[in-house]
TrEMBL record:
Gene3D superfamilies: Putative methyltransferase TM0872, insert domain (1.10.150.170), Vaccinia Virus protein VP39 (3.40.50.150). InterPro entries: RsmH, SAM-dep_MeTrfase_MraW_recog, SAM-dependent_MTases_sf. Specifically methylates the N4 position of cytidine in position 1402 (C1402) of 16S rRNA. The lineage of its organism: Bacteria, Pseudomonadati, Pseudomonadota, Alphaproteobacteria, Acetobacterales. Belongs to the methyltransferase superfamily. RsmH family. One of its GO terms (molecular function) is methyltransferase activity. This is Ribosomal RNA small subunit methyltransferase H. GO terms for biological process: methylation. The keyword Ribosomal protein does not apply. Its main location: cytoplasm. It catalyses: cytidine(1402) in 16S rRNA + S-adenosyl-L-methionine = N(4)-methylcytidine(1402) in 16S rRNA + S-adenosyl-L-homocysteine + H(+). S-adenosyl-L-methionine binds at G49, G50, Y51, D67, F101, D120, Q127. It comes from Candidatus Kirkpatrickella diaphorinae.
Amino acid sequence: MMTLPLSPRVRMQANPQSEGHNPVMLREVLALLQIHSRGTYLDGTFGGGGYTRAMMAEAPAHLFALDKDPDAITRGQALQDHFAVNDRRAAPTFEIRQGNFRDMATLFADVAPFDGIVLDLGVSSFQIDQAERGFSFRQDGPLDMRMSQSGQSAADLVNQADEATLADIIYHYGEERLARRVARAIVAARQEEPIHRTGQLAAIIRKVVHPDRSRIDPATRTFQAIRIAVNDELTDLERVLETAPGLLREGGRLVVVTFHSLEDRLVKRALQAAAGRVARPSRHMPVTLAEPTNMYRLPHGKPLTPSEDEIQQNPRARSAKIRVLEKTRHIIEPLEGTL
């Protein structure tokens, strides 16, 4: 397992927990981005701003952030205003913009190329902790789950989709083996009364899915599935993975933090494809380059994972993985093994 040092400046100046957000694998993300004072960097999933604040403390670089959640934009605007007024270091800048990261090529056409882009996938701690946002099965709140706070809500999906559609969503996006049973229970329950609260939905799921050895709440996988469907997360991820590498400067890096197997598989395949590596039909066959004049490389042959200490301090890090892609104009020799 790889452990990377956290600079004293980050430890002293960027305490994410004091802002109500504890970013996962912060040490590794900062080390991989290799932030320097002349660089331009993008936090493509601002959320609580934990990575951005730490990046600010690391070096007086030019920093940009992006998020589609209006609440995150409000937090980022406050940071932007504070930074502009109070920070007097040499030539730093910070700006946050609102939008879907799938559109970052358009949203930052006037800024690119970047020396580093970081994407922290999934739901943010702020969204989970605010019951009124409807992401959590541990707190009762309106069944919403919309990251952008617009469009179809989770309640709309749960109350309107037919049983087969619900089962497909829960099975494919939640990897819930009892998806048909859960879908059937949801349809039966909504015939009695509409499902408008997270507590209602969680109770329905727990009646038909019982705890197993993993100790994960029985509602976890279904809530994940509905959230992914409501926000079209995997489609957005596929699109940003197609465009983000092209926004990097030579030597720039795309750093992606994943939290479940669905998104991690997409990231793994996309970065392998960008680096010109092809999937092996057999584990006994060597990895090959698709083109000898590849423009990208994989700095690490395997994903980085959190230390046991971090998992104890921040349980959200338990399933996290980091994958990284670097842009280069040199011919790259293939790495042994796969990401």
